[in-house]
Structure prediction request, 120 residues.
Amino acid sequence: VQLVESGGGLVQAGGSLRLSCAASGRTFSSYAMGWSRQAPGKEREFVAIISWNTVGTKYADSVKGRFTISRDNAKNMVYLQMNSLKPEDTAVYYCGAGRVYRPPYLMDYWGKGTEVTVSS
Prediction:
């Protein structure tokens, strides 16, 4: 599975962005898909994950109620809608694919990331 993120950029606090992740591979629809992020000087952290059939979703407490993960299996796409952005959301966001949807929600494949900067 190859993953390519897009949609990052500079946005003011309180604004919105939608990240997209294009996946290649015939087995895309069988993978759980997720997003993680890494802020400057910090470790990578989990953001959100969605099961292969969209029934299950999980979010980090820091983004719950502001971010929404979704997927379109017909288009091999995953999205992260980010609303009410805060400066602390500034990070490189990575799209991931995992063979199983269960804790600790590990990903087997990662994209190269897209940068999000939220100005105050």
In short: The two ends are 36 Å apart (CA to CA). The longest strand covers residues 17-24. The mean pLDDT is 95.
